[in-house]
Amino acid sequence: MTFTTLTFILFLGVVLTAYWLLRNRTAQNCLILVASYFFYAWWDWRFCSLMAISSLVDYSVGLGLARANRRAARRALLITSILCNLGLLGFFKYFKFFTANFQALAAQFGWDVGPLTLHIILPVGISFYTFQTMSYTIDVFRRRIRPTANIIDYCTYVSFFPQLVAGPIERAGRLLPQFTSPRRFDYTQATDGCRQILWGFFKKMALADNLGVIVNRFYDNPAGSSGPALGLATVCFAFQIYCDFSAYSDIAIGVAKLFGIRLMRNFAYPYFSQNLGEFWRRWHISLSTWFRDYVYIPMGGSRVRPLHKALNILVTFLVSGLWHGAAWHFVVWGLIHGACVMPRLLTDRPALKATDVPGGRGLLPSWKVLGRMLLTFAIVCVGWVFFRAQTISDAFLVFRKMAADCLNGSAYLELLALLGEKHRMTRTLYFLAAFIVVEWCRREHEHALVLTSLPRWLRWLAYSGRRSLHGLAGWAGAAQVQSRLECRIVPILPRRWLRWAIYTALIWITIDVGTKTTSQFIYFRF
Amino acid sequence: MRRFTKELGVFVAIQLAVGAFILSHVRTDDSHYLASTRDKHALLESAPSPRIIFVGGSSMAMGLNCAVIKQRLPDYNPVNMGLHLTLGLEFMLAEIEDDLKAGDVVVLSPEYNLFLADQGNYILLQVVELRPASLAYVKWSKATDLGLNYLGRLVRRGIKGIQSRADFSNDPPYLRTGFNEHGDMTMHWNMSPPKLVRVGLEFNDSSPRYMALMIERLNEFHSYCRKRGVRVFLVYPPFADRHFHEQRGVVDKVQAALDKSLTIPILNRPADSVQQIDRFFDTSYHLFGDGIGVRTKEIADLLADGLKKSKG
Fold first, then answer.
1. Nearest residue of A to residue B14, measured between CA atoms
2. Is some CB atom of chain B closer than 8 A to the CB atom of A225?
3. Cβ of A254 under 8 Å from any chain B Cβ?
4. What is the pLDDT of residue A118?
């Protein structure tokens, strides 16, 4: 059940209504649990058994860790949990990759190992919920949190449907207490949730899906596309994956707010980062912090010698690349980021946090800041070429074409002519430009639709419009109309009506521009 | 909560008002190619049994001459239900299921793309809009998934209506009037062909599963037909030779899967339906001119043989 469908909207309406009619916390959790399994079963009911197995194993391990005192026993329980979760992940996600590579390697030595093929379907969301349950057992093992004895609360934490299939990957210490305590309806949180959901819908339907059309046109046939076209497609892919994934997170977080649950922020305007280290503190925050806390730090983190630290960084990014997909081009993508992040992490302490305002607080960035942001974006785009291309050789083909055509004027003219013909593509690019401006202007907020304080220039614009109408009415002799438009001395307009006008425009633009197809979110593949 | 519910109610009411205003300007176009679905269904209901019902996408619509079929098999009344491949196999089968009668014959000629991935909703939405009764052929889970797409489509139509812009593009031969009394598209038969577009056959990770699902559906359809005394046959679709050889690998995969699991008798092999590229109109699937004659003769011969064998 994809978020951007009528099916989900109807499902959410029913579940939310029932949820707030129930006053009892346990009943609410039971409802969420049933709804979450129903949500997951919509894809394939067989997937539910995997989630149930993972949940039950880790719940039992958690209780076992609470009772066990001997170090060996505790270690054995933790290893059980990790093996179970990684085993599930390894089998369903990586079996084909490893067997294909094993066969290729064996063939190098002249060994014929025979067919090792199985038709394995990748269960949606397995990469996310296995990591979420593993973090629970690891934190219990480390005595950071106490395990829960309430199986309903625990299973609800694992299966909570808004973040089940594509994150944010929550930590038990943050999310589980919210399920073990009563929830009260919060007007401010709920309205902000609605705004965040709307922004997510806009990013997914109006931007990501339409950018995907441009990307697919050129990346599905790189040999037949020119360098400038592939360059444009790469930039479009950078924003497609950002809008697609952050939209999912926005909708997930917004929906959770409607239930009175706060999920962690997952994106903090990553493309306004000034270096790769900052980028990884703003992109897919829940995953990058997971790898930091459960892979990088246990390997020694930054408290080791520089060479060891460099290795830790590379291994962490390699594993992160592999997490994204069972293919070598994802591994290369991870290694590129690891190599580019390394100099900064080896030499400087990270200065900027995700909660800091990216690019500083001014309306416009300085030239230096703008230069750093563009350079960082360019490096990230190099990585995206590997991420989007079907194979490593396709990725290198894209680079070769971009290099070969970079001074080819006719290739640029051809691209401009194509954009002139394809109005939908051009319109998408205009929307993208406007989106970047809006995100820049609203970067101090959790998401761009936080409109509780409207920019002064917008309020003056609306006031000027009203004042013009007032003057026109007077000139036309429409005294009654004029008196209704009487402006106060202080140009304060009803903010709510201005906000609602913006929301209304956004809703209908999204429906108009964004609903030719119902496409899956990109991160469902992981 | 009361304040939230109240404000949400007001906001939703405003959206409904805006929506009503936009949707009041929606115009329909009865001359569009896809509007022929109404005629095809009327033909299906009125043609006396026993019928030969041809099912497929536009390759079937544009690549068959039912008058020749009628001459060759005079005991049967041919009905060409072919329209557009992106309607999907599920829809195509559901369209005819309830109208089947004992003695009818169904000839399926699904395009290869129908076995590789879901073809999207765009054309399906247009068909449902032109013939609302066709919504009954859409699975309810897909119908609710289509809801936002459908609304979006209506909104775009409404905005065009407000701007007094033409909505459907009506370029020959893709017009409702381009079909004959059997449901064959004939307007293009003697037209000069435009530039030929190669149809890509994309085989990806989810294709094997999708193929298995489609074969399962076909087998269910076959079982349903057998119980009602309806015979079913499958014929591979026409394909331009150059594009066929370039994508032979994918075609072989489809053929292998069908040979392994399909219960419906297959009357030919993919290579038998391949013709030289200059017999194709505007895509790898759309025959015109002599190509239609060759294809029709092929189907008529195969069918005559197949009917004789299945009687025996």
1. A504
2. no
3. no
4. 52
Length of chain A (residues): 526
Residue A287 Cα, gap to closest chain B Cα (Å): 25
Give A472-491 pLDDT, tens digit per residue. 666 666 555 555 555 443 44
| Rounded Cα–Cα distance for residues B263 and A405 (Å) | 53
Residues of A in contact with B22 (CB under 8 A): 508
Inter-chain contact B120–A6, Cβ cutoff 8 Å? no
- Cis status of the peptide bond prior to B194, with omega within 30 of 0: no
Q: Are A78 and A65 in contact (CB under 8 A)?
A: yes
Answer yes or no: A337 catalytic.
no
- pLDDT of B304 above 90: yes
Cβ within 8 Å, pair B146-A20: no
Concatenating the DSSP letter of every residue in A317-386 gives: HHHHHHHH-SSHHHHHHHHHHHHHHHHHHHHS-----TTSPTT-SSSS--HHHHHHHHHHHHHHHHHHHH
- Specify the pLDDT at position A491: 45
Give the chain A residue nearest B142 (alpha carbons): A7
**Distance between CA atoms of A98 and A103, rounded to whole angstroms?**
8
Rounded-to-integer distance, Cα A163 and Cα A254, Å:
11
Judging contacts by C-beta atoms under 8 Å, the chain B residues touching residue A511 are 148, 151-152, 155
Residue A513 has what pLDDT?
A: 85
Annotated catalytic residue, options A324, A329, A337, A447 = A324
- Integer Cα distance of B204 and B133 in angstroms: 34
User: Of A30 and B202, which is predicted with more confidence?
Assistant: A30
Residue B163 near chain A (CB below 8 Å): no
CB distance A256 to A193 below 8 Å:
yes
Nearest to A203 by CA among A523, A483, A432: A432
What residues in A contact B153, CB-CB < 8 Å?
515-516
pLDDT at residue B124, rounded to an integer: 85
Residue stretches of chain A with pLDDT short of 50: 487-493
Residues 195-254 on B with a CB inside 8 Å of A are: 202, 208-209
Q: B2 to chain A, minimum CA–CA distance in Å? A: 9
Comparing alpha-carbon positions, the chain A residue that sits nearest to B204 is A390
Residue B193: predicted pLDDT: 87
Contact A226, A287 (CB under 8 A): no
Chain B: closest CA distance from residue A379 (Å): 29
Please report the beta strands in A72-212, taking only residues with DSSP state E, as ranges in sequence order: none
Provide the ipTM: 0.80
Q: What are the residues facing B52 on neighbouring strands?
A: B78, B105
Q: What is the percentage of chain A residues whose pLDDT exceeds 70? A: 85
Indicate if the pLDDT at residue B149 is higher than 80: no
Give the pLDDT score at A523. Answer: 64
**Strand pairing of B51-56 and B77-80?**
parallel
pLDDT digits (tens, 9 = 90+) for B53-98: 999 999 999 999 999 999 999 999 999 999 999 999 999 999 999 9
Instruction: Give the model's pLDDT for residue A348.
Output: 57
Instruction: Give the gap in angstroms from C-alpha B106 to the nearest C-alpha of chain A.
Output: 31
Contact (CB, 8 A) for B26 and B161? yes
